[in-house]
Amino acid sequence: MAQQDIGEDPVKELLKRFFVTFLLGVVIYRLGVFIPIPGVNAEALNQLVTAGMGGNDPLRAMLAYANMFNGGAIAQASIFGLGITPYISASIIIQLMAFSIPSLKALQKEGETGRRKLNQYTRYVTLVIALVQSVIAAIALSRYSAGGLVLLTPDAMANPLLWTVEACLVITTGSMLILWIADQITRFGIGNGVSIVIMISILAYLPQAFAGHATELAELLGLIAVCLVIIAAIVVVVQAVRRVHLEQQRRVQGNRVYGGAQTTLPLKLNHANVIPVIFAQPVVVLLVMLASTPWLAHLGLDQFMAYGNPGHRLVFALLIVAFTYFYISITFDLNDLTQHFKQAGFFVRGIKPGKSTADYIGAIMSRITFVGAIFLAIISILPETFAASFGLAGKGAVLLGGTGLLIVVGVLLDVIQKVGTFLLAHKYGGAALAGALGAGARKTGKRF
Fold this sequence. Notes:
Layout: H1 10-33, H2 42-50, H3 58-69, H4 85-100, H5 102-108, H6 112-143, H7 154-158, H8 160-188, H9 193-210, H10 217-239, E1 241-248, E2 250-253, E3 256-259, E4 262-268, H11 275-291, H12 294-297, H13 301-304, H14 310-331, H15 334-344, E5 346-347, H16 355-389, H17 395-400, H18 404-437
Antiparallel strand pairs: 1-4, 1-5, 2-3
């Protein structure tokens, strides 16, 4: 959350931030979802997307999956069709590059100045990704003809080149506008703007996804019970940390003793969050497409990798576990962490500083990462499992399991934590300000 005035009423400040979040995230963003791209046949595109979830066509399935995280924007042929995904992709790219490029890694250590430069680079990469994706989307819309569906209006088909250029500009502008909305929510609202936008998209898609499902009372109660169990499990895993106790070296200078402090290093059970799922999803689609080719189909791989089959779930789960270890290995630098410990004088009791400490923390991280990766894999393959159990045809299953609930619960927990931090900071900040001003003094309000 942005800086707040500790001399103001915290309730009014929170209400103002919630109003900004609601105005930008719910009103403006959701209105933009229903603004169509000129020249697109929205009804035909909606038919294409809604028929894809749960089907055997991997491209349609991925399109329908992306439609859920964009709040139905793809099915509406919206200018917000790309959603916030270009920024997410750019953030992951910059994060991976910072691990391998020394100059970017040095920026991470420069504090606020380095963070601003990295954010600027991320926005440049976002613009490039949005342009590339908009070009691909425009060409795909103009050339799609399978199943007798025509995705463009006659006016757009009369001049496809001009329409492609216009569509690219409109789609790219819409994606960057979403990024601006997310930035404003981060600065003046509650929580991280990107996470809030994704959560609003998923929640907006929830009624449509579950419409017509679980009409029987027993089935409905079973569905609610399963949702509550999944939410409880997600809360436990998201909040779970393994604390490594650290002690600071003591040194005696004259008659005074310095150091000797104790602290803990919290290692999150699900350190990678949902990023492994983002990595694994396109790889699974590619593998399904390869398994459907004639030279592999005769081996039965097309049936093994088909959506809904145990082979598809097994491969998807293994990829999530593999990408979890991969992501943590390139983002969690143990050598850099132990170097900071050494400079600050902290050590793990009974473990030698340096390589031994790195090996000790690495072994702990490997064990808890395995548990977190297994949990993430189970959550991600739940849609295919519950699709048959509760009759949730694709859309509802993805929201019941998968990453839908994981994202929503994680964002809500983050918002609750930020509100608690805000109130705590106001409480202590207000007490310190009152003590400094003295009795009867006028509070002028001081920023921190």
